[in-house]
Amino acid sequence: MQKNQHKGGNMKHFVQNLILVILLTILLLFSYAFVQKKTEKFGFSEFYQFLMNHESGQNNERAGEKEDAPAAEKQNSTYRAVWLSYLEFNAYRRSVEQNNENNFRKFFRRVLNRSKKCGLNRVIVQVRPFGDALYESGYFPWAACISGTQGTDPGYDPLAVMVELAHKKGFQIEAWINPYRVSSGSDLDVLSTDNPAKVWALSDDKTRNVLSFDGALYYNPSSQEVQELIINGVKEIVENYEVDGIHMDDYFYPTFTESNVNSAFDSLEYQKGLSAGAIEKTLTLDDWRRQNVNTLVSAIYQAIKSANADVTFGISPAGNLDNLRNDLQYYVDVDTWVKSEGYIDYVMPQIYWGYTNKEAPFDEILKEWVELAEGSDVKLYVGLQMYRLGTSDDGQSDYQELQDGALIQKEITQLEHTPAVGGYCLFSYQYLDADNKTYDYDSNVFAAKRKKILKETVKHLMEGQK
Question: Which domain holds residue 9?
Answer without folding.
Answer: 1-58
